[in-house]
Amino acid sequence: MKMIHFSVLASLFAFASSTRGYQMSWENWNGNLQNRVNEYEKPTTQPHIIFILVDDQGFRDVGYHGSEIKTPTLDMLAAQGVKLENYYVQPLCSPSRSQLLTGRYQIHTGLQHSVIRPTQANCLPLENVTLPLKLRQAGYATHMVGKWHLGFYKRGCMPTQRGFDTFFGSLLGSGDYYSHFKCEGPGMCGYDLYEGEEAAWEQDRGQYSTVMFTQKAVNILAQHDPRKPIFLYLAFQAVHSPLQVPAHYLERYKSIPNLHRRKYAAMVSCLDEAIHNLTLALKRYGFYDNAVIVYSSDNGGQPLVGGSNWPLRGSKATYWEGGIRAVGFVHSPLLLNKGTRSQGLIHITDWFPTLVSLGEGTLDEDLNLDGYDVWEAISEGRTSPRQEILHNIDPIYTKAKNGSWKAGYGIWNTAIRAALRVGHWKLLTGVPGYSDWVPPQTFSNLPLTNRWHNERIRGDSGKSVWLFNITADPYERVDLSLRYPRIVKKMLMRLAQYNRTAIPVRYPAKDSRSNPNLNGGVWGPWYKDEKDVNGDDQETNLLTNFLAKKRWKKKSKKKKLKRTPEE
User: Fold this and answer.
1) pLDDT tens over the chain, length 567 residues
2) How far apart are CA 147 and CA 96, in angstroms?
3) Residue 226 near residue 287, CB atoms below 8 Å
4) 452-470: string of b/e by CB count within 10 Å (b at 16+)?
5) Which residues are in the Sulfatase N-terminal domain (predicted)?
6) Angle, CA 146 vertex, CA 339 and CA 256 arms, to 5°
7) To which H or E segment does residue 230 belong?
8) Cα-to-chain-centroid distance, residue 83
């Protein structure tokens, strides 16, 4: 076994050494994998769990939803698995990630508002038990590759302190796909690529992050014994802005006149190839036959940077269906009803109990989960145990000017931003967010058409309550709040019940100590208390970052990585 591991590492090292920058050949990589012979023994009875979370992929931005973007791998995996067509996430990055890893609504973790900013002394609350921790307790090796975005102001917030054995990726919500730098304003710029709890200067070859993260994931699989269960959480940066992509992917989409849409489409195609190579590695290294692959977007697409949620209403950062109804599927040889579409109601909090149960872990009552075990609903087509979703209650978001207790029948202040789904019904209050429908023709370079103008909502400015039958009207075109006041009242009462269980919002002000210039040019933990490292260790870390940064700059100058104007 050791010889096998050494040969895999040697081949990967030789391959990595032959590449320069992002110009990595998927074809060469595929050839290396094809030449590998699976010499492993029969895998564990506990399934290998591969969770792929992509960033800002719109509902329409996959081939099987009618997109012009070519996604043959995603289409094939979904067609051979179970497509989740009534699947919900949160409208922003941190909220979806927090609910995935805790199985709890935002109101129960204090993360009801916005996202975790890199300048805030804030992170996923340490008292929350995480999905990787529960799987590790069940005997899993737990690895994370990609985007964290759950806070890092102190060491205890880092991924390797929250249940992951290893971590390679970024801590922030976005950044340059090649240089891995991110600015949060003038004089607030820093490096954001980590290996474990240290900046990954030495491992950085200036690769495009989609390729780099996939290579790291494959490397992890190559080194792991498939007789032992593995949980691999692969959280891609793609297809979040900035719109950057290797130039050769753009060649496929010359017919798309809108530059944002063209670049976005190319990024999705690169992502699709990454999933192809990951799937190939799962097969070649002996994991596939006993693996469960979950694919999910973290929120809806952003039309301003090329994403499309058509025919759904709204966009990322809104509680309309376009912000929270996600692309998702499960692919696994272990599924009983393959090649099906699930219409069962499923939420991102459900993955915690579902995957822990699949992994033969324990679910203690004191976890106070909001998620349900939905494996039988997915695998066998049974009725989903979930009948409602609290999309959120955000008490500090901008209040609706015309909202009031009176408009909420004395039950609820409709100025507060909130959204709730119960059965077929969906209720929104406050300011749900950008509410237009954005049809495909909007992405042309032609003047806006009459049809586009007709898709805009002009009469909603005075409203603070909406009610929709989502089953009959998934595009939220017919507001029924005036026709069914009794249902509105019942749902407002349910909102009030949820609100009584909410904890205070955690959204601290900017902390000047977060500036990377005070931390060796690196975004990373800055908050120190008696439980953290002492001052001497802090000075050592600063010196380490400084020296590593100098070596990285020297190495980068030698490489002189080139970019095309289109990147």
Assistant:
1) 434 444 444 444 443 444 434 344 455 555 555 544 444 455 578 999 999 999 999 999 999 999 999 999 999 999 999 999 999 999 999 999 999 999 999 999 999 999 999 999 999 999 999 999 999 999 999 999 999 999 999 999 999 999 999 999 999 999 999 999 999 999 999 999 999 999 999 888 899 999 999 999 999 999 999 999 999 999 999 999 999 999 999 999 999 999 999 999 999 999 999 999 999 999 999 999 999 999 999 999 999 999 999 999 999 999 999 999 999 999 999 999 999 999 999 999 999 999 999 999 999 888 999 999 999 999 999 999 999 999 999 999 999 999 999 999 999 999 999 999 999 999 999 999 999 999 987 666 654 444 443 355 555 668 999 999 999 999 999 999 999 999 999 999 999 999 999 999 999 999 999 999 999 999 999 998 645 443 445 444 544 555 555 555 555 554 443 333 333
2) 12
3) yes
4) beebeeeeeeebbbbbbbb
5) 47-358
6) 65
7) strand 230-235
8) 18
pTM of the predicted model, to two decimals? 0.87
Q: How far apart are CA 501 and CA 30, in angstroms?
A: 51
- Residue 430's contacts (CB-CB under 8 Å, 6 or more residues apart) are 394, 397, 399, 400, 403, 414, 415, 416, 417, 418, 464
For residue 391, CA distances in Å to 331, 349, 482 come to 26, 11, 22
